[in-house]
Write a structure and sequence with these properties.
Blueprint (H helix, E strand, L loop, with lengths): L2 H22 L9 H7 L21 H9 L2 E11 L12 E4 L10 H8 L4 E6 L5 E11 L5 E6 L2 H5 L2 H4 L6 E9 L2 E10 L10
Parallel strand pairs: 3-7
Antiparallel strand pairs: 1-6, 2-5, 3-4, 4-5, 6-7
Length: 204
């Protein structure tokens, strides 16, 4: 082996030894850089939540805000946006379902969660689309399996859903349910977003 080849081999060995030391000390990573990963590979998909883009407003409409403030409400949270189903509008069922998989934000306190897990109801008030404050509803939890459940607004739901002239609610109307609190007590706003077939939005 010539003198120049020996010098090259020694330099290579020194470089490898230095690299190994840097890796062991955490100064150097052998994983691809962020830039390489971003330009050289297809990025992983973000975890899907199953919730689509909102049809209705991302903030509580102003007339509801005024009503909430008028009764000293606070902590407004969007709970769910959904189409009313035939079951929601059935006089015989008298309940509005809030499916777990469609809930957008946690709106319950830990104590409320425990209460519902004990299969007890929570009395709540509701600001209707007609902007009247309706009392006497109950929030309950219905378990379908150990992991699948819905919350339900029950008891006097029929008085909110019927007659039509009160709030103009029908099957396939898109609604939003917002939660808020008055003196710590759970309350809701029911916002009518879109009427089927009209092509018009109640709020934007």
């Amino acid at each position: 082996m010539g003198e120049r080849e020996m010098e090259f081999d020694l330099s290579s060995l020194r470089l490898l030894a230095g690299t190994a030391a840097s890796v062991s000390e955490g100064k150097l990573s052998l994983t691809p850089s962020t830039e390489i990963r971003e330009t050289g590979r297809i990025p992983k998909k973000t975890k899907e939540t199953g919730l689509g883009t909102l049809i209705g407003p991302s903030e509580l409409p102003i007339d509801y805000k005024d009503k909430v403030q008028g009764i000293c409400g606070r902590d407004v949270t969007l709970v769910v946006e959904k189409k009313l189903t035939a079951t929601d509008m059935s006089r015989g069922q008298s309940r509005l379902s809030i499916p777990k998989k469609q809930i957008r934000e946690c709106f319950l306190s830990e104590e409320e969660i425990r209460t519902l897990d004990r299969k007890e109801g929570i009395k709540v008030s509701l600001i209707e689309p007609c902007l009247e404050v309706f009392h006497g509803l109950q929030l309950k939890k219905w378990n379908y399996t150990s992991k699948i459940f819905s919350y339900m607004l029950t008891e006097r739901w029929n008085a909110v859903a019927h007659p039509y002239e009160r709030n103009e609610l029908t099957k396939d109307v898109v609604i939003q349910l917002w939660s808020f609190r008055v003196d710590g007590n759970l309350c809701f706003c029911l916002v009518k977003v879109k009427t089927p077939g009209s092509g018009k939005y109640s709020y934007s």
